[in-house]
Please model this.
Amino acid sequence: MEKVVMARRKTTSTSSPKWKKDYVAKLVRYDALGKKISQCQDDSALAVHHSAFVKLETSLKAVEHKRKIQRWRSDDEQYVSAMEDLDQDERSRLLEEMRSASYMRAFLISLKQRYPDGQKIALKLSKQLTSASKKLAKTIQTYNSIQWELKNPEFPETVAFDDAKDPAWDTYQAVDGVSMCEPGLPYSVKRKAIDAVNLKERASEEQEMVKTEMLRVMQHLLAQHHITEDEKDRCTENSNAAGQALLTQHIIRIEQRLNRFCQRFRKYIPDLPFPPSGHIQYASHSHESDSNTPSFDDVIDDEDMENSTDEEEDSSDEEEEDSTDDEEEEDSTDDEEEEDSTDDEEEGSTNDTNEMDIEACG
Model:
């Protein structure tokens, strides 16, 4: 991987040698320090600038002596060519750092949204997000404080944080050429792939944990079955028929649960041993002779019994309410019929009285 990165960097580097670009960068800093010294009025700052100015002067003379050259001027052809290459390399490097930081920041934001605030992992992600934002802001500040003028119009002169934080910023796509080519996959894609692998491994761990819990449930029920069997045998020795009957019912329920869970768990644990079912088989044979008694498959737990009892009570209450409503409707219908018959009798008697009066008058 290192050979690929180095080969990519060699092919993406500019044409000017490195010492020329370093020499031009020192000349730019040398001129900038000379302007600061001429404008500085603070003695302490002036001393600092003068010390840096002397160091740069010594370094420039050493390069000029080694390369046997004279001090380049800003209008020299070598200076202009090296300056263009330096500008492209420096701005490309800073934009690449911005893009990597924006990828990292966007990935942390998407990862943080999965966890509620206050959790330990959410707090850790918040710290990483703050660090990535500070790194992006620092890189933007370095880009905007470049001491020389823009040489390549493909690069922006200044960069805003709101633009640089977007991984899909047009500038990243526009200058994503030879110099901005990131070796291999982007860091954000790698992080997503790592997250997907971790999620897959976590799912496998969860499956194993569920299988372990299945075995623990079976062991717990088997232990209950063994303890209840011992207590039942003790009741048999003491001639305690009531306790023996009660414990037998409890053993039947335990065996029913064991067989029910075994049927479900064997889909995921094929080598799960079959649980004891002697009391269930005995109960099933005894219930076959009595048709009114339900089989062991129909025997339900106490919670199911309570639920079914509540449902029966609710249904009986509804039936009583319906019968009461029907009786009230019938009573109201009978009252209406009686009222109608009474009205008819009164009308008939009134007509008879009127006929008798007419005959008397005649």
